[in-house]
Amino acid sequence: MFYPTTRTPWYRILYIQVLIAVVLGIALGACFPEQGKALKPLGDGFIKLIKMMIAPVIFCTVVHGVASMGDLKKLGRIGGKALLYFELVSTVALLVGLLVVNVMKPGAGFHANVADLGATASAVAHQYADKAEGMSTADFLLGIIPGSFVGAFTGGDLLQVLFVALLTAFALAGMGEKGRPILTAIEHGGEVFFKIMGIVVKAAPLGALGAMAFTVGSYGIGSLGRLVSLMLGFYLASGFFVLVVLGGIARWCGFSILRYLRYIKEELLLVLGTSSSETALPLLMQKLRGLGCAPATVGLVVPTGYSFNLDGTNIYMTMAAVFLAQATDTPLDLGQQLSLLLVAMITSKGASGVTGAGFITLAATLAVVPSVPVESLALIVGIDRFMSECRALTNFIGNGVATIAISRWEGEVTAGVLNAALRPPADLPGPD
Predict the structure, then answer these.
(1) What is the distance between the alpha carbons of residues 29 and 210, in angstroms, rounded to a whole number?
(2) Per-residue model confidence as pLDDT tens digits over 104-153
(3) CA distance linking residue 299 with residue 65, whole number of Å
(4) What are the backbone angles phi and psi of residue 348, rounded to the nearest 5°?
(5) What is the CATH number of domain 10-427?
């Protein structure tokens, strides 16, 4: 059901429409920058439409999956395995970023003088640093509790939605047969929201066109200059992580990472066009269930992963922090770099729910090495938007693989079932 049939005209296939829109957006932004920047509302509007649906989709999926499970011990076991997996893989991602930036040394020879960045750049950098100073473990934990039940659906924080959904699921599970009608209604409600998603996602090409035209029109392709080495290193590190690290996990689970990437190609192009992994979250959950992963596992692991399993963000944080040290001629010994890594393991958690999360968490991480001037953050403001697509793609792929790995770990799905579902129609035997 997830692959287009041979009878579908190529121009009606969604991922081809999104790909064409991305190319047109880049061309429009490069050739007509002002017109490209004027298309920003298209991208913003589409992202708002998608985010409007994320909270109800997650709520219905988690409540129905968990309440139907009827085994709270299994739920706790799945949650424990997921957190263990997230911490291990996220640490590997941080190490990959640290290794690549030390080998490539993209900031070496930059000799940036923060005094030359100007008052505006300094103000921007300090703005993010001030936000980072307000972050604490207690604030993060208290932030999981919404101000009201309805507030969980309006605040845009996935952890709050997950918290309310789990409480609701526990309550319904404890009601027994009395809760069955409510559970059935929530199941049907989830189907309605997925249908709405199917309608909204048809606007993806317009959203991708607007987002890409604005990005290129605002920052320009030719203005990247010497910062391109950091971008190249980040893309290489992310590619290595996906193909080697996540590819190794996929192989251990009995499936091919390349086949999985082909399976979610529509969602990947949607993430690429909008620069947000959240835009394809409901579609990812639907496809993971199509692979045979249990609804409860999908509903628990995917939303949690969006706060605790940000592989692309982790790679970016260590690479950007060391790059800024190199660019400002600030020597960092091994101990200081390991301290950066340890702090990043903490500051990256829950970053998806914070506006400007990339810079805020980076500023918080840099605080462990005061010798790196916080004003240096302004060096990468201009190219951050170009790296956000890669961050979002890596985060998105990582959360999908994590869910499959947990499902395999739980024995919910076999390698044979996975490979049968991942095999495209061209590989299937034709009718007799």
Answers:
(1) 9
(2) 888 777 676 655 544 444 444 445 455 545 555 677 678 788 888 888 88
(3) 7
(4) -75, -20
(5) 1.10.3860.10
